[in-house]
């Protein structure tokens, strides 16, 4: 584990303090998942490393929440962590707002490249609408 922590720290992944746009939560998780893939982390190691990057009130929240979420003697898993974490820091209403923003997205005065970038950024909040390549092309 010591070697894994050293490798993880070398990647210089940012800490998470819970401040800012709720979309920052999604980006933070995505960046963690990229690091975990490179490092070949187990489900339990992912949680340990992610928790290490929690700062301030977010760290306090996890300490208080962990015992309620995890039954005694069960392993903490990444899927469980992300679900609870998103429930706190990327609420259902925030996700719905991002979905609505995706639904309202129009090219307008953007270049095709700008529109494509915004489409890609917001489409992750509407995965069912873009999972089929044909649906994705129609929506674009």
Structure write-up:
With 140 residues, the protein is an all-alpha fold. The protein starts with a helix and ends with a helix. The relative contact order is 0.11. The protein folds into 2 domains: 2-90, no CATH class; 93-139, no CATH class. The longest helix is centred in the first third of the chain and has 17 residues, at 23-39. It contains 9 helices and no strands. It is elongated, with a radius of gyration of 17 Å. The protein has helices at residues 2-10, 23-39, 43-52, 57-69, 78-89, 92-104, 112-123, 127-130, 133-139.
In short:
The chain has helices spanning 2-10, 23-39, 43-52, 57-69, 78-89, 92-104, 112-123, 127-130, 133-139.
Features:
140 residues, mainly alpha, elongated
**pLDDT < 50 stretches:** none
Helix count, DSSP H or I runs of 4 or more residues: 9
Helix content bin:
55-70%
The first-to-last residue Cα distance is: 44 Å
Mean pLDDT: 86
The rough form would be described as elongated
The description of the largest β-sheet is: none
Summarize the helix and strand pattern as letters.
HHHHHHHHH
Radius of gyration: 17 Å
Number of domains: 2
What's the β-strand tally? 0
Approximately what portion of the residues adopt beta-strand conformation?
A: under 5%
Structure class: mainly alpha
């Amino acid at each position: 584990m010591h070697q894994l922590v050293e490798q993880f720290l070398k990647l210089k992944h940012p800490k998470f303090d819970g401040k800012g746009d709720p979309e920052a939560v999604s980006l933070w998780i995505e960046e963690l998942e990229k690091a975990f893939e490179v490092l070949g982390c187990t489900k339990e190691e992912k949680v340990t490393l992610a928790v290490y990057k929690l700062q301030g009130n977010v760290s306090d929240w996890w300490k208080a929440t962990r015992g309620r979420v995890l039954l005694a003697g069960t392993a903490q898993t990444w899927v469980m962590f992300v679900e609870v974490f998103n429930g706190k820091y990327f609420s259902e209403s925030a996700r719905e707002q991002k979905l609505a923003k995706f639904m309202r997205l129009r090219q307008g005065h953007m270049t095709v490249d700008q529109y494509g970038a915004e489409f890609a950024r917001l489409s992750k909040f509407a995965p069912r609408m873009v999972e089929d390549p044909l649906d994705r092309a129609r929506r674009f």
